[in-house]
Design a protein that fits this description.
Mean pLDDT: 96
Order of helices and strands: HHEHEHEHEHEEEEEHHEEEHHHEH
Number of domains: 2
CATH architecture of the largest domain: 3-Layer(aba) Sandwich
Distance between the termini: 30 Å
CATH superfamily of the largest domain: Type I PLP-dependent aspartate aminotransferase-like (Major domain)
Helix content: 25-40%
Number of helices: 12
Strand order of the largest sheet: 1-9-8-5-4-2-3
Structural class: alpha/beta
Radius of gyration: 21 Å
Low-confidence stretches: none
Strand content: 5-15%
Largest sheet: 7 strands, mixed
CATH class of the largest domain: Alpha Beta
Length: about 375
């Protein structure tokens, strides 16, 4: 008889099927492997996910953020408002263009940036706001766009974890000056590695196309100083297959989350969803009500994969903490600190079966029995 140890449920499971493999092989055999027809088709098809915006494919989500800030002319002397409760890439992209990340607190429910904290952090040097649609829950874009409009600030949406998420019927990536998506293997869809920038502004889109390709549209006719952040046609072909699967996968994630919402009754606080928000559950992130280390050990022993995203807020990471200490700068982010101490992400991916969901809920509820 098998035990939970024999079949642990992974926290995430990237999908690479025969269709993805065939798409990659087809492109390799074609000889058109970089910045070719597959990339153009991927951009066009992804546009349907973001209300018809211009789409520019690049080699990673981090590149998407960095190139967007470059295209907007953001650099030394500028400040960009960023939540500290996110993956480091959000703030790294700001540093990479020579600007300063100004960290603000999150909302308790969504884990996304608090609009009131954003407004309080605006200074004459603020150039942009970077809301992060964390774990697949949309940030409060209605309020953030209103603030940005009043202060004439750019808005760069970090939608790396939120393919297909929406607020009030508007998809993420279609609110701000630009939106940035990631196609890393553990995301809701992937292209092995890759990213996409979305924008309603044709001039920004053209600048981005120049920046990703050494500053040139025509070979050797360099118009600006650019980088090499192109997406390969192999990656784009895989991304196109995954994009076709995304709607069904998203509904399965949402159904899995609904099951866990209903059946987890002890041991953890399930993730609330804001009114009008469509959560796509890149992660199903709960708050542990007891000791988190013990809870994680118990979940692992029960064969339930789990992970903490993110145990250390960005402002406490060495590249940010040490310069702030030298400058005498401190950040008061109590909701961020509390989330970092309490969160655990549970499996929610579309490969889960009914028995897996039962085991996950039972293992979490057992944590409550032990308190």
């Amino acid at each position: 008889m098998s035990t939970p140890h024999d079949h642990p449920i992974p926290a995430a499971r990237p999908v690479i099927g025969e269709e993805e493999i065939e798409a990659a092989v087809r492109v390799l055999r074609s000889g058109r492997v970089v910045q070719g027809p597959e990339v153009a088709a991927f951009e066009e098809e992804f546009s349907e996910l973001v209300a018809g915006r211009h789409c520019v494919a690049v080699n990673s989500g981090t590149s998407a953020l960095q190139l967007t800030l470059m295209a907007l002319g953001i650099g030394p002397g500028d400040e960009v408002i960023v939540p500290s409760f996110s993956f480091a890439a959000s703030a790294n992209s700001v540093r990479l263009v020579g600007a300063e990340a100004v960290f603000v607190d999150i909302e308790d429910g969504s884990f996304c940036v608090d609009p009131a904290a954003v407004e309080a952090a605006i200074t004459p040097r603020t150039a942009a706001i970077m809301p992060v649609h964390l774990y697949g829950h949309p940030a409060a874009m209605d309020r953030i766009m209103e603030i940005a409009g009043r202060h004439q600030l750019a808005v760069v949406e970090d939608a790396a974890q939120a393919h297909g998420a929406a607020l009030g019927g508007t998809p993420v990536g279609a609110f701000g000056t630009a939106g940035c998506f990631s196609f890393y293997p553990t995301k809701n869809m992937h292209s092995l590695e890759g990213g996409m920038i979305t924008t309603a502004d044709a001039e920004i889109a053209r600048t981005l196309r120049l920046l990703r390709n050494q500053g040139m549209e025509q070979r050797y006719a360099n118009e600006i100083v650019g980088a090499n952040m192109r997406l390969t046609d192999v990656a784009a072909a895989i991304g196109r297959v995954q994009l076709g699967r995304l709607p069904a996968w998203t509904e399965q994630r949402r159904a899995n989350a609904a099951y866990l919402d209903e059946h987890i009754t002890a041991g953890a606080v399930t993730p609330p969803v804001a009114e009008g928000a469509r959560h796509v559950y890149h992660q199903y992130t709960v708050r542990i009500t007891g000791d988190r280390d013990t809870a994680q050990e118990r979940l692992t022993a029960a064969g339930v994969g789990n992970a903490v995203y993110y145990p250390t807020p960005i402002h406490r990471l060495k590249p940010y903490w040490e310069p702030d200490q030298k400058a005498g700068r401190t950040w008061d982010l109590p909701r961020t600190e509390r989330a970092a101490a309490e969160v655990v992400s549970l499996p929610v991916h579309p490969s889960l079966e009914a028995a897996d969901l039962e085991r996950i809920a039972a293992a979490v509820n057992a944590l409550g029995d032990a308190e």
